[in-house]
Every structure is written in C-alpha cells, then in structure tokens.
Amino acid sequence: FDWQRMLALDGNTAPYLQNAHVRIHSILRKGDVHTAQLQANDLVLEDPAERALATELLQFPQTIEGVARSLEPHRLCNYLYGLASGYHAFYERCSVLKADTEVQRKSRLALSYLVARTLRRGLNLLGIQAIERM
Prior knowledge:
The protein is an all-alpha fold.
C-alpha cells in the first residue's frame, strides 16, 4: 500500500475523481450558473468529445445494475474513472464558459453538470463524500 499513489491527483484514485467534480463546480461558480437552469434537453452534442462523454453518462444505470448483481464495487470505481477521464478530455478540447455560441455554452454547462451529478452519485454509493472545493 502506497499513500502517495493513493492520494495522487492523476490516475485511478479518489482525488482524481474528486478533482473532476471540483473542476466542474469551479466552472459553474465562475460562470455564475444556477444548476436549476440547466436541462438535459439543452444538450447539443457536436464535438466528438461531447458525444463520447454523453455516451459514457448513459452507461451509469447499466454499471450500477452490474455492480449490484456482481457485488464488485471496483466496477463502479472503473466507471467513475472513465467518466472523470472523459470529462478531462472534453474540458481540454471544448471551451465551456467561452464557447463559440450561447447554445453551445449552455449545452456544455448542462453536460458538465450531468457529469458532476453522476460523479457525486457514484462516489456517494462508494461511501465517499463528493466535495466542491479542494
């Protein structure tokens, strides 16, 4: 067991997952976005990174069902790692707050919020409290 490895901000670790959640909440704060205003039907998935992230989100219910059947929580950990990695790739490729159009901005904010909500739910199922600031 290696504490340095377990607490690293990169790789398949809880801090890495928390970092994605924190990053999204930072974006929402900077954009003065109220999550009640964000709707899933605002999504316009034009970029491949947006579509990949949305596809990953759609796998959450199936993942939870699989974990419940198999009693293997590491599958949820792997899913959350894939989701966080997908979000980081999306964030690097697609500007959220400075998107080209207001429709694109609103869509990317909604997608980000859906990722944060899913990360929070997944971490909660693992007994880990999702934080909004690090």
